[in-house]
Structure formats: structure tokens, C-alpha cells
Amino acid sequence: MDETESSSPPSVDNKVNEEIENQVQKLVSRHRKFTREFDKNMEICRTQLDKILTQSANNAPIQLLNSLYDVDLTITKLNEMEEEYEECALCSNTKHAQPVSISNVNEKVSVSLNDTCEDYTNTIMKPMVTMRSMVSMKSKQFFLTPSEKSESINLPESIKKISASQPNTLSDYFVYLVNEKVELPTITSIDYKAIVVKALEFVIQFFPLFKILSVSIAITIIQWLLYIIRVYLYRKSGSTPLDIELESIGFGAFSGKLLRDDLAIYRLFTSTFFHNSLGHLIISTMMHFRFSSVFEKLNGVWTTLLIYFMSSAYGMMAVCWWFPNVLQANGFSGDWGVAGALLSRLFVFPYLVHREHQHFVNIIVSYICLFFLKTIGQGSSIIVSAHILSMISGLCFGIMSNSRLRNGHCFGINSLMVDFVCSLTLLAVPICSIFMLFLVRDG
């Protein structure tokens, strides 16, 4: 018995073992924030990396061309946010490096707890490092203090892939940040297959997250059906402008006069599906895929519908007293509201990068398109100010709905003050507009 006990490897104290496991769990969970949208972002990132991994050879380097993390996120900021991190509930679905058996840990049991944790961590992650030099590239490492082996390697101007010892497994204990994308090689010869692939990638990029079961897609289909029925089936040839105006009223268009005289509150909803011209409908459809579909993927169906319709109604009510006789076509205002809600993510939680700069560009392009439609006379009932106010309301809704991502401050201001300003904006503007609408009638 004595010889058997002496020949067996020394065991680690249970308490020490629990502390080690806790340290490893914290290390694993640091790469994600305990919020639903962070989980979805990381799921997208993992899916892309897994796809690259299956296409590459074993232990081949993987170039991380993009990242969901802000390049300004440093280990200092991460330590400040550590209290907000929680253990990842989805780690079982992630391919982590397999830990070695406890018998392979350093045999010295008498060392301190911190040293034991460090030894165990280093033993678990004995990575196989492969490196590929990249020109004009910078990378940063966080979430984990580099081991001695990785410290000896020149990290700047390179992108590394650290894989687990087992083949076809991806270790996400390490995350590297890339400041810019890698320039893809130009096509020197005519490759029709590559051209088709590039064209499909462009279409998918322009219409992201295209799903036939998406509620956002259903809204677009309804808008197109109503426009086709109204213009090509219902409208008679030789219709006068008065006939078209009556037709628009019959199909749910909104105006301040109708709200004031008939209390047609339901038109705040029906006008969201109304488009007065084909150009307005096409631009609305294009930006609907860029805004509402992305927002629905991140926040769910009900939040998207709530912000879509409320921001559209907000824009209509905010300008109805100034343009009481204009039949408003607000099928596009809801998308502007959703765009404002997407932009709020950049200010509320700047550590998450979700290409918010593209939303800025899309909004500017949308404004130019609306201005062009009004210039050529194809959008006489388009009120650009209503779209801008819808975007402001969406920004307020987004800031308030994303309160769970804030840490006491937003825009550098106290969160309570920001919520007060947003609430005041959402309530005061439409109330004052409705008051002025009825005051003008009574006057």
C-alpha cells in the first residue's frame, strides 16, 4: 500500500483545484459580455472563424481580417469592466482548448495559490504558434498575459493564429486586434467563377441578413403589394391630381388636417406602409435592409417593431402642425428611427464595433436620395424633417433601451440626466405639435 501511494502522482488540494477552475472559467468568459447582443456578435464571429478553419489545413495560420472589438479597448479598460463580466453560459458550445489532466500540473504542491494558477494556465495552453508577416499591420493582445514563448515573438506588424494542440480545434483564449483590413490580391486573369462569387458577396453585403421569415422583410413585402395594388390595379388611367389625393387618403395616408378634423389616429399606423412614388419605395426598400433587418437580428422582433412604428408616428406628429395639409408618405420614417437606434449603440457602449460608421454613411445617402426625389418632383409629399425627427426619436429610444449596457454614464454625462433629456424629447415634441395643430384650427 505504501509503495502504491508513493508511486501515485501528487494530487492538488480540492480548494486549490476549485480556485484554479474558477480562474480558468473567468479567463474563458472574458471574451464575451453577458448581454444578448454581445452573444450574437460573438456567435457571428465564431461562425466565420470556424468556416475559415474547416477550409484551411491543420495548424495552418488563420488571418483575423476583422474584429468585433474596438481597437481602443486595452487591458486597463478591460480590468475596469471586470466587475460587469459574468461566467459564460454558452461556453459548452464553443471550441476551447482541451485542458490536460490534473496529473500533468506542476508537481510542487507547496507553491502558493497564485503560482499554481499560473502554472496550470500555462500548462493548459501550450499553443502551437504559427506566424505570417503582414505589411503595414498592427495587432494587440489582451484578455491574457502572454506566455514566455509568445513574449519572445515580435507581435507588431504581424497576425498570428494560436491553435490548440488537437487538430481542427480553435482556441479562443487569445484574441488579436487588427487596425486595418488586409488588401486582397487583385485578379490577374479572368475568372468567371470568382467574379460571380464577388458579385454574390456584394449583394449579400448590400442586403445583409436576408431571411424570408424576417418580420422586416414582411413589412417590405406588404409595402410593395400595397403600392402595386394602388397604382397598377386600383388607379384608373387619366386620373387627376385630386383623384390621386383621394386615392391616397383611401389607402391610409396621414395628414395633420385628417387628424384634427376626423381624429384619424389609426393613420399614424397605416401611413407607415404608404409610399407616394416608386423611387421613394425603392430607396426605402434598400435602406430597410440596411437598418431594420440588422436591428432585428440584434434586438429581436418586438423591439424592432416597437421602435419602427413609434419613431414613424413620432415624425408624423412632430411636423403635422407645420404641414397640416400635406399627405405624408412615411414608409421610410420608421427605417430612419431604427437607424437612430443603431447609432445609439456607438455612444452607449463604444467597446462594441458593429460598423456604426456605415450607418452614418447610409443615413447621409438616404438624405441625399430623398432630397433628389423632391428636386425632380417625385416626392412632393415627402417631408424630410419628419424623417430626421424620426431618427432623433430612434436615437432616444435606443439610448434608453440599451441602459443595461451603460456603466453610470453616457456621452460622458450621468445616465439619469441622459434618460431625462431623452424622455423629455420623446414627450414634449409631439405634445407641443398636437397642441399647436388644434390651436391653429381654433384660432
Describe how the helices and strands are arranged.
Blueprint: H1 2-7, H2 14-29, H3 36-55, H4 75-80, H5 113-124, E1 128-133, E2 139-142, H6 148-151, E3 158-163, E4 175-178, H7 192-206, H8 215-234, H9 241-250, H10 256-262, H11 267-270, H12 278-299, H13 301-319, H14 333-348, H15 356-375, H16 384-401, E5 409-410, E6 413-414, H17 415-442
Antiparallel strand pairs: 1-3, 2-4, 5-6
Give a written overview of the molecule.
It is a multi-pass membrane protein. This is Peptidase S54 rhomboid domain-containing protein. Its main location: membrane. It is found in: Membrane. The chain crosses the membrane at residues 212-233, 301-324, 336-353, 360-376, 382-400, 420-440. This protein is mainly alpha-helical and 443 residues long. It has helices at 2-7, 14-29, 36-55, 75-80, 113-124, 148-151, 192-206, 215-234, 241-250, 256-262, 267-270, 278-299, 301-319, 333-348, 356-375, 384-401, 415-442, and strands at residues 128-133, 139-142, 158-163, 175-178, 409-410, 413-414. Helix 2 crosses helix 5, helix 8 packs antiparallel against helix 12 and helix 12 (278-299) packs across helix 13 (301-319). The chain has a two-stranded antiparallel sheet with strand order 1-3. A two-stranded antiparallel sheet has the order 2-4. It has two domains: 2-178, no CATH class; 212-442, Rhomboid-like (Rhomboid-like fold, Up-down Bundle).
